[in-house]
Amino acid sequence: PEICDTLDNDCNGLVNDGLDEGGADCGAGVSIPLPDRPENGTNNSVSGTITQGDVDWYAITFTDAAGYPNAFNIRLALSSNAGVVRMDVLKNNCSTPITCGSGTNLNITELSWNAFGETSSACSGGAQPCPASHTQTLYIKVYKIGGSVCEPYTLTATNG
């Protein structure tokens, strides 16, 4: 069986194959492994394992039940044992980074986005995150920036 050692342990011509567990490819058929998040303060999480050079995609829809601007508060948190897993948070079918001031929400481990469109503690006065439908789907790209060959991670989503 394969183990995380950069070798082809099962002699099938592929290194560390089958060890990556996590999200799907991004696109029209992207999986939604995290249940959609209503605005009730509960959270859901998904765990995966990522290998160097691999990318895991997740999509999650957040709902602002009572309409803007009440307690719509999105929080995404990404954790890994070695701290080498990062995420990019995008919208519009994986193509547009969420921006705040002069920065984008790329290469991060946590995102907080409130009803006023503010992202993180250093930003204010952004646009309303919910369109008229009172929902926002975010696409999360998870990847490694170093560390061991295979790195387990947990992605947690909260709203409210």
Q: What is the structural class?
A: mainly beta
How is the biggest beta sheet arranged?
4 strands, antiparallel
> Can you count the beta strands?
10
Q: End-to-end span in angstroms?
A: 43 Å
Shape: elongated
Radius of gyration: 17 Å
Average predicted confidence as pLDDT: 74
Q: Describe the strand arrangement of the main beta sheet, using strand numbers.
A: 1-10-3-8
The proportion of strand residues reads 35-45%
Short synopsis of the structure:
This protein is 0% helix and 38% strand.
Description of the molecule:
A hairpin with a 2-residue loop joins strand 6 and strand 7. Helices cover 0% and strands 38% of the residues. It starts with 42 loop residues before the first strand and ends with a strand. It has no helices and ten strands. The strands form three sheets. It has a four-stranded antiparallel beta sheet with strand order 1-10-3-8, with no helix packed on it. With 160 residues, it is mainly β. The protein is elongated and about 55 Å long. About 5% of the residues have low confidence.
